[in-house]
Amino acid sequence: MGLTITNDVATWYKRELDIGSEPSYIRFFPRYGHGGHIPGFSMGINHDKPKKTYASTVVEGITFFIESDDAWYFEDVSLQVTLNEDRDEPEFNYIPQ
Question: In which domain, by residue range, is 86 found?
Fold first, then answer.
């Protein structure tokens, strides 16, 4: 499982979540909804500190991570988060491994 966050989208999160220079954390997790790679689920985010990390990366001073309890949603895929410039919002891409 890989986790890739582009600098553009990290900057977007800083702006939208009003993240300053202090250490910050953004958790990605599955939630009930529509639009994810598994029917019935979509991507959620939370401003939370890691407890038991499955995957993580640091971009623009933000630690982006996935908890081990959520690993089932990311099995056999890498998550790539980019900025959709036309819509000015993050775009979640699930790349098969």
Answer: 3-96
